[in-house]
Design a protein that fits this description.
The chain has nine helices and nine strands. It is of the alpha/beta class. The chain has two domains: 1-16 and 64-105 and 151-228, TPP-binding domain (Rossmann fold, 3-Layer(aba) Sandwich); 18-61 and 107-144, SIR2/SIRT2 'Small Domain', CATH 3.30.1600.10. α5 runs parallel beside α9. The radius of gyration is 18 Å and the shape is globular. The protein binds adenosine-5-diphosphoribose.
Length: 228
């Protein structure tokens, strides 16, 4: 059985990472949505770098939760037949043990040199404009897909959705495209697992409401049970 899972900020909420639209909180007086744009970076690169430096540093303070671990368990059962497509820029899927994870919005722990184009695994800050380890230019930006930029690897995702038997969306508001359209691209059955019905909940064949740390392990138990 080929399964594609889409995850959003809701799967990491119970690990202590705030979602984008639930908190209503400001960061240094700015709406986080307005910091995540190429225009914001052009206007004030230091501000944008500090925002992502803080989010990168916060990764050291959080751990994967039961939902991330359940998806790693599902990969043990399904192997290459599972693809996790995530909008999240954290590394909690990988730290839970998932290997087939595709980050369509990039990753906090990756830095991208705008001078030479090389990407580097990155743990520290970028606001102090460190040199690129490859070319020396002080031109590293967060390897994050901002609003108005093209998500990574959509060909791969489109293909996987076309081939899947089941598409499951977890912890995402269904407001940001192209991920919000995946339910229409999926050829197989569709299921939503979310705290509340998302904007696109009625597009799914089935929608279950509750915290990801409960819904995801229960759903994985169901799938693994069917495979036995
Ligand atoms: N369990 C399950 N779902 C949850 C939980 C939880 N514990 N907590 C919150 N949610 C749900 C919320 O109800 C909401 O529908 O997760 C969703 C989070 O929505 P958003 O904050 O909009 O996050 P997401 O959908 O991932 O945002 C998409 O927007 O800002 C951009 O690039 C950013 O990748 C992000 C994209």
């Amino acid at each position: 059985m080929k399964v594609v899972v889409l995850t959003g900020a809701g799967i990491s909420a119970e690990s202590g990472l705030s979602t984008f639209r639930d908190s209503g909180g400001l960061w240094e007086g700015h709406d986080p949505m307005q910091v995540a744009t190429p225009e914001a970076y052009a206007d004030d690169p230091g501000l944008v770098q500090r925002f992502y430096d803080a989010r990168r540093a916060a990764l050291d303070t959080v751990e994967p939760n039961a939902a991330h671990h359940a998806l790693a368990r599902l990969e043990e059962a399904l192997g290459d037949d599972l693809l996790v497509v995530t909008q999240n820029v954290d590394d909690l899927h990988e730290r839970a043990g998932s290997r087939r994870v595709h980050h369509i919005h990039g990753r906090l722990r990756s830095a991208w040199c705008r001078a030479c184009g090389v990407r580097h695994e990155w743990d520290g800050p970028l606001a102090d404009t460190p040199p690129c380890p490859a070319c020396g230019a002080r031109a590293l930006r967060p390897d994050i897909v901002w609003f108005g930029e093209i998500p990574y690897g959509m060909d791969l995702v489109e293909q996987a959705l076309w081939e899947c038997d089941l598409f499951v969306s977890i912890g995402t508001s269904g407001l940001v495209y192209p991920a919000a359209a995946f339910v229409h691209w999926a050829r197989g059955a569709t299921l939503e697992l979310n705290l509340e019905p998302s904007a696109g909940a009625t597009d799914f064949a089935e929608s279950r409401q509750g915290p990801a740390s409960e819904l995801v392990p229960a759903w994985v138990d169901q799938v693994v049970g069917l495979l036995r």
